[in-house]
Design brief:
Layout lengths: L2 E5 L7 H12 L5 E6 L2 H13 L3 E8 L2 E7 L2
Parallel strand pairs: 1-2
Antiparallel strand pairs: 2-4, 3-4
Helix pairs in contact: 1-2
Length: 74
C-alpha cells in the first residue's frame, strides 16, 4: 500500500489539521497518509478531526520529540 507523507513539524494548531485536511482532499479514497509532527496538541486534534469526517486511523506512534499518525482516507 502506497503511503504519502505530510510533515507538519514546527507548526502549531490549527495549521497541522488544515494541512492534513488539504492533503487528504487531494488523495484518492483508500490511500494512506502518514502525518509527522512535533506539536503534541496536534496529535489529538488531527485524530479527532479525521474520525469526525469518517477517515480511519490506522496507526499512531507517539515518541518524543514527535509523533506519526497514519490515516486511511474514506
Amino acid at each position: 500500500m502506497e503511503t504519502e507523507k505530510l510533515d507538519v513539524r514546527q507548526k502549531m494548531c490549527p495549521m497541522p489539521v488544515l494541512l492534513t485536511r488539504r492533503k487528504l482532499e487531494e488523495m484518492d479514497s483508500g490511500k494512506v497518509l502518514e502525518v509527522i509532527g512535533d506539536y503534541h496538541p496536534a496529535l489529538e486534534n488531527i485524530q479527532r478531526w479525521a474520525k469526525n469526517v469518517g477517515h480511519d486511523i490506522i496507526d499512531v506512534t507517539d515518541s518524543p520529540p514527535g509523533f506519526k499518525i497514519k490515516i486511511k482516507k474514506h
